[in-house]
Amino acid sequence: MAGGSALANISDVGLLKRLSKSAGWLEALVADVLNERCGQRIESHRSLVLIDGTTVQGPSSVGTDWVLHTRYTPGLGFTGVKITDCHGGETLMRHTVRPGDIVVADRVYGRIKGLSHVINQGADFIVRAGWRALPLRDAQGGKLDLFTLLEGLPAGQAVDLPVHVMVDGHHQPLRLVVRAKDDAATVAEGRRSARKAHKNKRKADPRTAVAARYMIVATSLAAKDYPATAVLDLYGARWQIEWAFKRLKSLLHIDRLRATRDLAKTWLFAHVLFALLIDNMTRQVLEISPCASCNERPQPALADLDMAPSGTAHGAGS
Predict the structure, then answer these.
(1) Which CATH class is domain 47-259?
(2) Of 118, 173, 229, 260, which is the most buried if we count CB atoms within 10 A?
């Protein structure tokens, strides 16, 4: 293809060797596109930032080979992408956030160091919490008996529990927002936990079955500004980054990795760059009306993602 298009007179082996050394260059191009996109972020005090990762397997692989660590802003799309091998754990410490941001992440990110990293940058978080992931304490510093507090909570009802955790040697006040699930959701979560225990070849803790009855979210947001229902609604915005991953894999096939080692990173960064450029062009097209007379009217700006006191996000989904 390179020879036929007069791009280069080079052997396929020589071209592959050059491509395998192009990962750093493509990573720099991705960073440039992301920096330009971040510059378009609306200057509001409170912006929603979704953080998550997705895995990619190489040819003939049965496990995780690569991890895409991403940051996503509703209304803008991906605003941060890092790629590591399978040893790169998912943690909030990989990501830079702005003061005032509200970081939303799944339970794998519910670790003390990552939460402390967000707080130290002047941001807040809403993170799904496992029943034993955080060393929870009550207001007096005693160990919190979570299941006793939640016993008898009716399905669909949410409670707001003020708690403390030890962060860097001092008590950090947090809130646990807990909603009791219905029977169907409880059964589904129980099956998921059982499959995970079987996969990891360990016996399931009976308390895990009890925890399956509840959705537990930890947050540093003030209760007076963001009541329990608002916190749960904001956490529900995570579907946007999940759909972004789905588009990467189902439309651009980033998960159909054909290469290993350095050439694999070239493949991945090239696909990420491709996705970002398509996203930018699509956004430009959507901002132009097919009606000529409509184009003469003032075009509305991107929706302000500032969080209202009620805790409702006004940003449009991507």
Answers:
(1) alpha beta
(2) 118
